[in-house]
Request: fold
Amino acid sequence: MAKDYRAMWEKLGINLQAHDGLLSVLSDAYKGMYLAQSNRPKGMGYFDFVISEVHGLRIEEIVAAKEQGRPVIGTFCVYVPEELVLAVDGVCIGLCAGAEVGFDEAEKYIPRNTCALIKAFMGFKLAGLCPYVQTTDLIVGETTCDGKKKAYEALEDITGKVYVMELPHMKSPEGRVLWESEVRRFAGKLEELSGKKITLEKLASASELVNSKRKALLRLAALRAADPAPISGLDALLVNQVSFYDDPVRFTQSVNALCDELEDRVRRGEGVAAKGAKRVLISGSPMAIPNWKLHAIIEGSGAVVVGEESCVGERGFRELLDTGFATVQEGMKKIADRYLTVDCACFTPNTERMDNMTGMADRLKADGIIHYALQFCTPYMMEAFKAKKAADAHGKPFLRIESDYSMEDFGQLKTRIEAFLEILGNGTAR
Reply:
């Protein structure tokens, strides 16, 4: 019998009736998209369990950590250094949301034509549906887009616990100085909040822990290059999504166990799709739980998604941190340098992202690239044109898609994607 968490949720201020409805919808969607897949790796059982306890056991663990005096830090972006949170014995939780929830309430604070990701994280809070937000001691935002910057102002009015890191939009020498100072400022905030000093020993240990998680995810990403693909894009996407809020040690162990199984599959030539199935790389906006629509359409049409050039994908773990530092100050600089390698569309110029996209397409043997941008996500919508130019120059068929979290365009997207899959290898899609 499933454990009853309602008393915990009520204590956290969750809207129980609406929350019951949300979990029911999430469960149905998961069964239809994930559990209906055939020949899934056994190692995905752990991640199925995580989703079944998405607002249960993990929240219970976080509440217990708070009771032990550990700070809980909520984040919205891969620019927030997880190493620093762990160095003060904190818990780092990703807060982005991927469902059309609480939008009516969100639109009382932000414009209707705001991207779905921003409306979702506002909506989940305002509708009383996110226990992760409720457990946080600090919510860390960042200046990756104008919509987020202004939404954080509203979220601060609502919660009183928002902290914003200023990210430069040019990787110039001056920009690097600014970002390093922001990393140090954030470290000071964490020390103040936790009452703990970041020591060399703590920072080194936290850095190794986060690097271990990145290495496990890189191992999984590399295995997706095999043909036939040993794991579906849906399942790989789920692993990446879970990485943002699961316990890092347990998560890393579970990913490595999954990779052991996948390596055995590769040796035996076993896959989730037939050898020679069309292979697609997805590039663009991040996909937070439960935004599984695009992967479900592509793989439901007979192709396999082999990689995500996205923050919920290789962009977030591509580069390891250089852990060869001898002082805390040197460690801070290396952390700042590592996080500035992330090639978000907010940067100008941004040739790095185009090089990484085409490089991934080659390494993962992708037949084509689908560029996904959330509606009203201006940076990724604008970069779609540059991405297409890079794909064309690289001989990779390219499809540009703009969508949101609703299922209203499911049929239209399916038609466009099926047409794209038909011509892979024979021409260029627009």
Remarks:
- The two ends are 51 Å apart (CA to CA).
- The beta strands are 72-75, 91-94, 138-142, 162-165, 279-284, 304-309, 368-374, 398-403.
- The chain is about 55% helix and 10% strand.
- The chain has a mean pLDDT of 95.
